[in-house]
Amino acid sequence: MVIMIKFVCAFLCNMDILKDLIFQRRKNIEHVENSLLAEAYSILQGDALSREISLIQSSNNTQVLVKSKLDSAKVFSERDIKKSCENCRLRFLDSKCYKSELPYNARIKATAFEIQTEHTLNFKILTEVANFSSKYPNTQQLLFADIGNGEYYFIYQWGREYSKYRKMTSLPYRNVEFLFIYIVLLSSILTIITPTTFITTKPNIDYFSMIRMAYFFWCVVFLSSMFTYYVIGIRKGLNNAQWDNASFL
Question: What mean pLDDT do residues 228-246 have?
């Protein structure tokens, strides 16, 4: 009963990007924990040489801030952000791509964070693509500081929350796999609801026949061509290829 109430509340409420990021981070942490268990097992098997080398190389990367001085609850990995961008049709770009002026609170907090860390940092914004070119963006926007090693520190959030339907409408365009599944499902629905008289003029044709099967494949081909034109010609790509792409702003 409690789970049902939570599900209904989540469906009725608008979507908060920060909450989605926290959810993605929790899922990724669970995935990492499972990976670490698998890695520990591989060490026992004597197969961890390549992983050990990659860890040593990553520790010798360019300047990385000391995480112990930061609030770990505000640190998000590139993987967390990418997943939210794919799910919600958002982009994660440098603040220089943002045409409007940052809010006063965002600028103050960004400056204070640079003073705290004693470093000049690169800042990025997570929001929908229209907000980067708009002079008056009003939907949710999140400001992050690049703290190195593929991690970003949350600075400030402003703007109104996104519609609760945003994830649903973005679902088919996450990647090629989701788009193909969506096309097959839509073709199946069209095949089921289309009357036999619309498919063929031959009399006494069973509902389940090879003609209906051929009609299903025709729907798949037709919808594939339509979505291909829409994705390439209008959307300029799927979410997983656009999330950090500054083109077409």
Answer: 85
How many C-beta atoms lie closer than 10 Å to residue 124's C-beta?
22
Whether the CB-CB separation of 145 and 152 falls below 8 Å is answered with yes
Residue given tokens 């929790």 in the structure block: 26
Residue type, 140: Q
Residue type, position 195, single letter: P
pLDDT band at 111 (very low <50, low <70, confident <90, very high): very high
Tell me how crowded residue 81 is: count the other CB atoms within 10 A of its CB.
Answer: 25
165 within domain boundaries:
no
Instruction: Mark whether 144 and 185 lie in a shared domain.
Output: no
In a domain, 169, yes or no: no
Q: Is this model's pTM higher than 0.85 or not?
A: no
DSSP string, 70-95: S-GGGEEEHHHHHHHHHHHT-EEEEG
Order of strands across the sheet that contains 123-127? 75-77, 151-158, 141-148, 123-127, 91-94
In this structure, the answer to whether residues 33 and 144 fall within a common structural domain is: yes
User: Locate tokens 């025709």: which residue?
Assistant: 218
Q: Which residue would you say has higher pLDDT here, 35 or 29? A: 29
Full domain range(s) for residue 135: 2-158
Q: In this structure, what token pair is assigned to residue 59? A: 């520790």
Residue 228 placed within a domain: yes
